[in-house]
């Protein structure tokens, strides 16, 4: 109703129309442009357009109007928000901030290393099985969204942390039936919950003095961003992340201009020729 009141006020004050049933598609487009001029975010504009469409669908259904003027009304395109990331120093600080004097310290450090080192989703980490870790070959077998399997590289540092946890901590745990193959366990011998992973990551960030809004997904974002910033192939990163579409992976290509320029100068043949000529 609040959105419709805004539309009615605009129609009355700007268009000179008092009956919303009389508005045309162009009238509604003018209203959307008016919202943009007011500085409303694209998400807020989109929500209002959605409400207006629902209103006119109702009028059409109840035979108050013969045609729906909102049928071809375009929703403003929302900007894709770049995910928050951590730089390597911040990640190292988080790992160093883990209190190893506590029984869960080795486990928590291994969790952070694995989330960042392999770019796992939270659910993929909590469901990670010992039988799906191939230490010698250096990869994990992951069951991702839609029960799709993929192979993910396991870095040497992540492998070292996991092995340390398995040998020093997990080997002494009393494990509940059904969780014998799960890698990361809580103090009751069963799988960790998503909430527990969130708490572990946020506490490590706070202890490291990091003021950013951190979640386990931040480590996945950082994994992808650092790979692409370092020159990794976008298709390879897509496979490692388990993205269905490459467009999802493309959000990580927010490279700074200096990095792009350095790559152009280094790899593009015309740029190389220009550099030789200048020399």
The outline comes out as elongated
Number of domains: 2
* CATH superfamily placement of the largest domain: Intergrase catalytic core
CATH topology of the largest domain: hpI Integrase, Chain A
Low-confidence stretches: 255-261, 271-279
Q: What is the top-level CATH class of the largest domain?
A: Mainly Alpha
Largest sheet: 3 strands, antiparallel
The helix-strand sequence is HHHHHHEEEHHHHHHH
What's the total number of strands?
3
Distance separating the two termini: 68 Å
Strand content: under 5%
SS-based class: mainly alpha
**What is the helix tally?**
13
Query: Which architecture of the largest domain per CATH?
Result: Orthogonal Bundle
Strand order of the largest sheet: 1-2-3
Mean pLDDT comes to 84
Residues in helices, as a percent range = 40-55%
Radius of gyration: 26 Å
């Amino acid at each position: 109703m609040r959105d419709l009141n805004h539309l009615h006020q605009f129609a009355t004050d700007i268009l000179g129309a008092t009956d919303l049933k009389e508005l045309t598609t162009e009238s509604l487009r003018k209203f959307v442009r008016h919202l943009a001029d007011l500085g409303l975010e694209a998400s807020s504009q989109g929500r209002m357009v959605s409400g207006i469409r629902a209103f006119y669908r109702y009028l059409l259904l109840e035979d108050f109007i013969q045609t729906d003027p909102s049928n071809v009304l375009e929703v403003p395109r929302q900007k894709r928000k770049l995910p928050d990331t951590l730089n390597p120093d911040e990640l190292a600080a988080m790992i160093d901030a883990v209190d190893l004097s506590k029984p869960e310290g080795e486990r928590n450090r291994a969790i952070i290393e694995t989330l960042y080192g392999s770019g796992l989703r939270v659910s993929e980490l909590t469901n990670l099985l010992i039988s799906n870790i191939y230490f010698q070959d250096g990869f994990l077998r992951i069951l991702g969204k839609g029960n799709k399997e993929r192979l993910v590289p396991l870095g040497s540092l992540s492998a070292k942390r996991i092995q340390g946890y398995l040998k020093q901590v997990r080997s002494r745990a009393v494990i509940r039936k059904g969780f014998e193959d799960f890698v990361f366990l809580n103090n009751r011998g069963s799988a960790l919950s998503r909430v527990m992973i969130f708490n572990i990551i946020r506490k490590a960030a706070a202890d490291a003095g990091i003021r950013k809004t951190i979640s386990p997904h931040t480590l996945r974002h950082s994994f992808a961003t650092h790979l692409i910033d370092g020159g990794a192939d976008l298709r390879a990163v897509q496979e490692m992340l388990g993205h269905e579409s490459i467009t999802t992976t493309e959000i990580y290509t927010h490279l700074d201009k200096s990095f792009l320029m350095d790559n152009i100068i280094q790899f593009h043949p015309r740029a190389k020729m220009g550099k030789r000529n200048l020399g």
